[in-house]
Amino acid sequence: MIIDFQTNAQNLYKVAYKTPEKVRFMVSDNKGGFSKITWGEFLENTIKITLYLDSIKPMAGRKAVIFAKTRVEWAYFGLAIEACRGVFVPIFHTSPPSLLSYITNHCDAEIIITEKPLLPEIFKVIKDLPNVKKILVMDNDTLNVETIKPIVNINEIYEIGSGLMKKNPDRFAQLLRDISIDDVSTILYTSGTTGTPKGVILTHKNLYVNSSDWIDVLGPLIPQEKIDLLWLPTSHIFGWGELGLGHALGFKTYFTNPIEALSLMPIIKPTIFISVPVYWEKLYLQAIASSEIEAEQIDKLLEITGGRLKFCLSGGAGLKLEVKEFYYKAGLLIIEGYGLTECSPTLTMNRGDDFDFDTVGKAFPSVQLKLAVDNEILAKGDNIFSGYYKDKESSSQAFDSEGWFKTGDLGIFTYRGFLKITGRKKEIIVTLGGKNISPVLIESRFKDTPLIEHIVVYGNERKYLVALITLNKIIAQRLSDIEINIIIQDSIDRVNRDLQSFETIKKFYIHDKSLTVENEFLTPALKLRRNQVYEAFRDMLDGLYG
Q1: Residue from 88, 85, 25, 23 nearest 58 by CA
Q2: CATH 3.30.300.30 domain range(s) in the chain
């Protein structure tokens, strides 16, 4: 048993009673400004939802899907489900109805929590959701349509919850006392690069151990004034983790969306920014395009980020070395780590006083790491999940005979003990010559080519390798087609010089659009869906062998 264990809901109860007037969230008032939500209001809203859920039937072990964009109600409903020992199952808001139906049915969810704009997506598959008893909506009203499932809006939930609070004021505290460290907190369906999504089962213990490690390792870097700008999808463990850290460390969190996040930085002036690489790169490109003089570029970076940034974290994919070095010159250390959903999610992290930009850092205190014979990264620790929901075969295959979790990633340790990712075990190209090639290893060598947004290596059962390339639009628009082709070819030639002959890229195809989550070429965690890309561009890529 972990000493001083507490869930986010239990922490909320404690903090809100001590400092009820302190501001926890800032949300858009739809007039260009923000309205504040205090810890006390956060607690009250969470209690009302908790008691409403508890009144339907005991929630212990029961599943509730959350299908919505990032918004403050995510915090209320997520912690309410946790408070009454339910299991919350997030679904990314752009998921197609077929995936919504699959996950909802597979996890045995009885409740769907959503928002008004997404109700039509649910209605498309409502007849295929036999286990769902109610649909709860985060908005004040709902679509005026007939449906076979009861729909309850947030005002109705609050009204019922308020009555239950008066009737039994001690019920919420009683529910919190019943939470066990070994209760399942969430089932997160990994979007995966191929195949059917698998439900990762994470307990309160898994999440608590990992968040404790995170605070132990990175807590000293968090500034005294804690203001963050949350735009990451809270349906993903990266965004949900940022929200949870805000609960634990007392952030003042401004809720926004992917479109407005960067434009709000000089207005909100956050001291904390947690993001995927593409946003760090956009800010970098904007800064270097402002001047030929480095000092002026740095001034521009500080201006567009608000000038108060102290803590910078990048995750989801690797950030280009030149970007990290530029920020460092500006006095901003961008921290990177490595992990998987199955690991709650973090395994390694660079530190403020112990980092290597060419690696993903060193193991968290509660994590053990080692390399298999083929250099696959293996992990153990209390943060590691126990298995996939209703999938004994995949659960068994995820661990070796000694209980080490098989990450599927390949790596090496530097002489200083830092972990460096070298490729993906399962993403292997086998050429006609019988050579095994890691496309990820080759693709990672192009991270420092600003013009290239994505490069996808192709060539299974072929004589040689070719590549699909998409461009960074900001840079490409300043160049002619001839200049673009020259720069791309020079970059490929540079990388090819350091590769074995059978690993070199012989030809390439430039696609004029981006690979995105919306067109289903990237997962919500911004990982490449390699097979989908191969299938969609097969004719173009095969044409390069003519």
Answers
A1: 85
A2: 429-543
Q: Are 288 and 245 in contact (CB under 8 A)?
A: no
CATH number of 210-424: 3.40.50.12780
Phi then psi dihedrals of residue 373, to 5 deg: -60, -35
Query: What span, in angstroms and rounded, lies between the C-alpha atoms of 82 and 61?
Result: 10
Eight-class DSSP state of 351: B
Would the pLDDT of 192 be above 60? no
Which residues are 359's β-sheet partners?
Answer: none
% of the chain at pLDDT higher than 70:
97
Residue pair 140/115 in contact (Cβ under 8 Å)? The answer is: no
Sign, Cα dihedral of 49, 53, 55, 61: negative
Beta-bridged to residue 470, according to DSSP, are 454, 511
In degrees rounded to 5, what are phi and psi of residue 302?
-65, -35
For 520, the token pair is: 């289903």
497: which 2 tokens? 């010089």
Alpha-carbon torsion (391, 396, 398, 399), positive or negative? positive
Return the CATH number of 8-179, one of 3.90.230.10, 1.10.150.170, 3.40.640.10, 3.40.50.12780: 3.40.50.12780
The mean of the pLDDT values for the chain is 93
Kindly give the residue spans of alpha helices, DSSP state H, lying in 398-444.
Answer: 439-443
Instruction: Let me know the angle formed at the C-alpha of 320 by 316 and 321, rounded to the nearest 5 degrees.
Output: 125
**Token output for 67:** 């299908």
- 461 — alpha (psi -120 to 50), left (phi > 0) or beta? left
User: At CA 206, angle to CA 202 and CA 208, rounded to 5?
Assistant: 125
pTM: 0.85
Cβ neighbour number for residue 383 with a 10 Å cutoff: 29
Q: Which of 204, 210, 160 is nearest to 60 (CA)?
A: 204
CATH 3.40.50.12780 positions along the chain are 8-179, 210-424
**Inter-CA distances, 436 with 72, 89, 354, 441, 465, Å:** 47, 38, 35, 12, 12
In terms of Cα–Cα distance, which of 87, 142, 133, 86 is closest to 114? 142
Cα dihedral angle (322, 541, 525, 305), rounded to 10 degrees?
Answer: 30
- pLDDT tens per residue, range 307-350: 999 999 998 778 889 999 999 999 999 999 999 999 999 999 99
Task: Answer yes or no: is pLDDT of 2 > 50.
Answer: no
Give the Å distances, CA to CA, from 509 to 172, 441, 499, 539: 59, 19, 20, 11
DSSP helix/strand/coil, 505: strand
Could you name the CATH architecture of 429-543? 2-Layer Sandwich (3.30)
